[in-house]
Design a protein that fits this description.
The chain is of the alpha+beta class and 218 residues long. It has three domains: 1-33; 37-185, Protein Transport Mog1p, Chain A (3-Layer(aba) Sandwich); 187-218, no CATH class. Helix content is 33%, strand content 30%. The chain contains six helices and ten strands; from the N terminus they run ααβββββαββββαβαα. It has helices at 2-26, 28-33, 82-90, 163-175, 187-190, 195-209; strands at residues 36-40, 44-49, 53-59, 62-67, 72-79, 98-102, 105-114, 128-136, 141-148, 177-178. Strand 4 and strand 5 (72-79) form a beta hairpin. The N and C termini lie far apart (96 Å). The relative contact order is 0.14. Residues 4-32 have low confidence and may be disordered.
Protein backbone atom coordinates (compact mmCIF):
# COMPACT_ATOMS: atom_id res chain seq x y z
CA UNK A 1 0.00 0.00 0.00
CA UNK A 2 2.86 2.33 0.86
CA UNK A 3 4.47 1.80 -2.55
CA UNK A 4 1.15 2.52 -4.24
CA UNK A 5 0.83 5.80 -2.35
CA UNK A 6 4.37 6.76 -3.36
CA UNK A 7 3.55 6.09 -7.01
CA UNK A 8 0.40 8.27 -6.78
CA UNK A 9 2.41 11.10 -5.19
CA UNK A 10 5.12 10.81 -7.83
CA UNK A 11 2.56 10.96 -10.64
CA UNK A 12 0.93 14.00 -9.03
CA UNK A 13 4.28 15.77 -8.82
CA UNK A 14 4.99 15.07 -12.49
CA UNK A 15 1.57 16.46 -13.45
CA UNK A 16 2.12 19.61 -11.36
CA UNK A 17 5.55 20.15 -12.93
CA UNK A 18 4.03 19.76 -16.38
CA UNK A 19 1.28 22.29 -15.61
CA UNK A 20 3.76 24.80 -14.21
CA UNK A 21 5.89 24.36 -17.32
CA UNK A 22 2.93 25.15 -19.56
CA UNK A 23 2.06 28.23 -17.49
CA UNK A 24 5.55 29.69 -17.77
CA UNK A 25 5.93 28.71 -21.41
CA UNK A 26 2.69 30.39 -22.41
CA UNK A 27 3.09 33.39 -20.11
CA UNK A 28 -0.28 32.85 -18.44
CA UNK A 29 0.95 34.18 -15.09
CA UNK A 30 2.58 37.18 -16.72
CA UNK A 31 -0.54 38.01 -18.71
CA UNK A 32 -2.69 37.85 -15.60
CA UNK A 33 -0.36 40.13 -13.62
CA UNK A 34 0.05 42.74 -16.38
CA UNK A 35 -2.87 45.11 -16.18
CA UNK A 36 -3.43 47.44 -19.12
CA UNK A 37 -5.60 50.52 -19.52
CA UNK A 38 -7.01 51.32 -22.97
CA UNK A 39 -7.34 54.90 -24.17
CA UNK A 40 -8.83 56.44 -27.29
CA UNK A 41 -8.62 59.98 -28.70
CA UNK A 42 -9.47 61.52 -32.05
CA UNK A 43 -5.86 61.12 -33.18
CA UNK A 44 -4.42 58.16 -31.27
CA UNK A 45 -5.46 55.04 -29.38
CA UNK A 46 -3.70 52.25 -27.57
CA UNK A 47 -3.06 50.68 -24.16
CA UNK A 48 -1.08 51.90 -21.18
CA UNK A 49 0.62 49.39 -18.90
CA UNK A 50 -0.89 49.49 -15.40
CA UNK A 51 -3.90 51.25 -13.93
CA UNK A 52 -3.93 54.54 -15.80
CA UNK A 53 -6.81 57.01 -15.70
CA UNK A 54 -7.68 60.15 -17.64
CA UNK A 55 -6.66 63.33 -15.83
CA UNK A 56 -7.35 66.12 -18.32
CA UNK A 57 -8.93 66.29 -21.77
CA UNK A 58 -10.09 69.90 -21.87
CA UNK A 59 -8.19 70.39 -25.12
CA UNK A 60 -9.16 68.42 -28.21
CA UNK A 61 -5.62 67.60 -29.27
CA UNK A 62 -3.93 67.23 -25.88
CA UNK A 63 -4.82 64.69 -23.21
CA UNK A 64 -3.21 63.80 -19.90
CA UNK A 65 -3.33 60.44 -18.11
CA UNK A 66 -1.98 59.33 -14.74
CA UNK A 67 -0.65 56.12 -13.21
CA UNK A 68 -0.93 57.10 -9.55
CA UNK A 69 0.57 53.87 -8.22
CA UNK A 70 3.88 54.40 -10.02
CA UNK A 71 3.78 58.22 -10.29
CA UNK A 72 3.75 58.28 -14.10
CA UNK A 73 2.05 60.97 -16.17
CA UNK A 74 1.38 60.48 -19.87
CA UNK A 75 0.74 63.55 -22.03
CA UNK A 76 -0.57 62.71 -25.50
CA UNK A 77 -0.73 65.40 -28.19
CA UNK A 78 -0.55 66.14 -31.89
CA UNK A 79 0.59 69.07 -34.05
CA UNK A 80 1.16 69.52 -37.75
CA UNK A 81 4.96 69.50 -37.45
CA UNK A 82 6.37 67.60 -34.50
CA UNK A 83 9.80 67.40 -36.17
CA UNK A 84 10.23 71.17 -35.83
CA UNK A 85 9.31 70.96 -32.17
CA UNK A 86 11.99 68.34 -31.54
CA UNK A 87 14.55 70.53 -33.33
CA UNK A 88 13.76 73.24 -30.79
CA UNK A 89 14.05 70.74 -27.94
CA UNK A 90 17.50 69.79 -29.24
CA UNK A 91 18.70 73.30 -28.39
CA UNK A 92 17.76 72.48 -24.79
CA UNK A 93 19.85 69.31 -24.77
CA UNK A 94 17.26 66.73 -25.83
CA UNK A 95 19.35 64.85 -28.40
CA UNK A 96 20.40 61.45 -29.77
CA UNK A 97 17.06 59.69 -30.11
CA UNK A 98 16.62 55.95 -30.42
CA UNK A 99 14.74 54.98 -33.59
CA UNK A 100 12.05 52.31 -33.58
CA UNK A 101 9.25 51.22 -35.92
CA UNK A 102 6.02 49.75 -34.58
CA UNK A 103 2.91 49.03 -36.63
CA UNK A 104 4.42 50.87 -39.59
CA UNK A 105 5.05 54.03 -37.57
CA UNK A 106 8.56 55.44 -37.20
CA UNK A 107 9.24 56.72 -33.68
CA UNK A 108 12.06 58.90 -32.37
CA UNK A 109 12.54 58.18 -28.66
CA UNK A 110 14.31 60.72 -26.46
CA UNK A 111 15.39 60.44 -22.82
CA UNK A 112 15.77 63.54 -20.67
CA UNK A 113 15.29 64.87 -17.15
CA UNK A 114 13.66 67.91 -15.59
CA UNK A 115 13.09 69.48 -12.20
CA UNK A 116 9.51 70.55 -11.45
CA UNK A 117 8.82 74.22 -10.96
CA UNK A 118 11.44 76.95 -10.96
CA UNK A 119 13.64 75.53 -8.22
CA UNK A 120 16.91 75.13 -10.12
CA UNK A 121 18.74 74.16 -6.93
CA UNK A 122 16.54 71.13 -6.33
CA UNK A 123 18.35 67.89 -5.65
CA UNK A 124 18.15 64.64 -7.57
CA UNK A 125 15.47 63.55 -5.11
CA UNK A 126 12.79 65.45 -7.05
CA UNK A 127 14.14 65.03 -10.57
CA UNK A 128 11.67 63.72 -13.12
CA UNK A 129 12.77 61.24 -15.80
CA UNK A 130 11.04 61.91 -19.11
CA UNK A 131 10.71 59.79 -22.23
CA UNK A 132 9.52 61.70 -25.31
CA UNK A 133 8.22 59.67 -28.26
CA UNK A 134 7.71 61.52 -31.55
CA UNK A 135 6.36 60.29 -34.87
CA UNK A 136 5.96 62.58 -37.87
CA UNK A 137 3.51 61.52 -40.55
CA UNK A 138 2.98 63.11 -43.91
CA UNK A 139 0.70 65.87 -42.61
CA UNK A 140 0.60 65.34 -38.87
CA UNK A 141 3.00 64.72 -36.01
CA UNK A 142 2.31 62.74 -32.83
CA UNK A 143 3.85 63.12 -29.39
CA UNK A 144 3.84 61.03 -26.23
CA UNK A 145 5.48 62.36 -23.07
CA UNK A 146 5.96 59.70 -20.39
CA UNK A 147 6.92 61.58 -17.22
CA UNK A 148 8.22 59.48 -14.32
CA UNK A 149 7.84 61.63 -11.22
CA UNK A 150 10.31 62.01 -8.39
CA UNK A 151 8.32 59.50 -6.31
CA UNK A 152 8.17 56.91 -9.07
CA UNK A 153 9.39 53.44 -8.13
CA UNK A 154 10.31 52.62 -11.74
CA UNK A 155 13.98 51.98 -12.47
CA UNK A 156 15.31 54.39 -15.08
CA UNK A 157 18.68 54.19 -16.81
CA UNK A 158 17.99 56.93 -19.35
CA UNK A 159 18.00 54.53 -22.29
CA UNK A 160 16.08 51.64 -23.84
CA UNK A 161 17.49 49.17 -21.32
CA UNK A 162 15.72 50.66 -18.30
CA UNK A 163 12.28 49.72 -17.02
CA UNK A 164 10.92 53.13 -18.00
CA UNK A 165 11.25 52.08 -21.62
CA UNK A 166 11.13 48.27 -21.55
CA UNK A 167 8.20 47.86 -19.19
CA UNK A 168 6.11 50.96 -19.87
CA UNK A 169 7.01 52.84 -23.05
CA UNK A 170 7.72 50.10 -25.58
CA UNK A 171 4.52 48.11 -24.86
CA UNK A 172 2.59 51.37 -25.23
CA UNK A 173 4.19 52.16 -28.59
CA UNK A 174 3.53 48.63 -29.82
CA UNK A 175 -0.18 49.09 -29.06
CA UNK A 176 -0.55 52.50 -30.69
CA UNK A 177 -2.79 53.20 -33.67
CA UNK A 178 -2.29 56.68 -35.17
CA UNK A 179 -5.21 58.43 -36.84
CA UNK A 180 -5.23 61.39 -39.20
CA UNK A 181 -7.18 64.36 -37.90
CA UNK A 182 -8.71 67.49 -39.34
CA UNK A 183 -7.91 70.96 -37.98
CA UNK A 184 -4.64 69.78 -36.45
CA UNK A 185 -2.99 72.53 -34.36
CA UNK A 186 -0.25 74.40 -36.23
CA UNK A 187 3.09 74.43 -34.46
CA UNK A 188 3.50 78.19 -34.96
CA UNK A 189 0.19 78.79 -33.17
CA UNK A 190 1.48 76.79 -30.21
CA UNK A 191 4.32 79.32 -29.89
CA UNK A 192 2.06 82.34 -30.42
CA UNK A 193 3.73 83.22 -33.72
CA UNK A 194 2.58 83.73 -37.27
CA UNK A 195 3.62 81.14 -39.83
CA UNK A 196 6.16 83.58 -41.26
CA UNK A 197 7.61 84.43 -37.85
CA UNK A 198 7.97 80.76 -36.97
CA UNK A 199 9.70 80.04 -40.30
CA UNK A 200 12.19 82.81 -39.51
CA UNK A 201 12.86 81.35 -36.07
CA UNK A 202 13.40 77.88 -37.53
CA UNK A 203 15.87 79.31 -40.04
CA UNK A 204 17.89 80.65 -37.11
CA UNK A 205 17.68 77.24 -35.45
CA UNK A 206 19.02 75.58 -38.59
CA UNK A 207 21.86 78.11 -38.82
CA UNK A 208 22.77 77.44 -35.20
CA UNK A 209 22.79 73.67 -35.76
CA UNK A 210 25.00 74.20 -38.82
CA UNK A 211 27.62 75.90 -36.65
CA UNK A 212 26.61 79.57 -36.67
CA UNK A 213 26.36 79.88 -32.89
CA UNK A 214 25.69 83.61 -33.10
CA UNK A 215 22.42 83.04 -34.98
CA UNK A 216 20.39 82.88 -31.76
CA UNK A 217 22.21 85.62 -29.90
CA UNK A 218 20.69 89.00 -29.24
Amino acid sequence: MENKNLIIVAVAIVVIIAIVGVIFATGILNNQSQVTSPFKTDFMEGNFVGNVSLENDTQKFMHSYKDKQHDITYNISTVDNSTALMEIYELQGVTNPEHRNFNGNDWNIYFTQAVPGDNASSSANNTMNIVICESQGQKQGYLIYAIFGAKSDVNSTGNVFGDTYKVYVEPLLKSITLKQSSDVPAIYDEFGLTEEQFAQQMELVHQYKAGNVSALEG
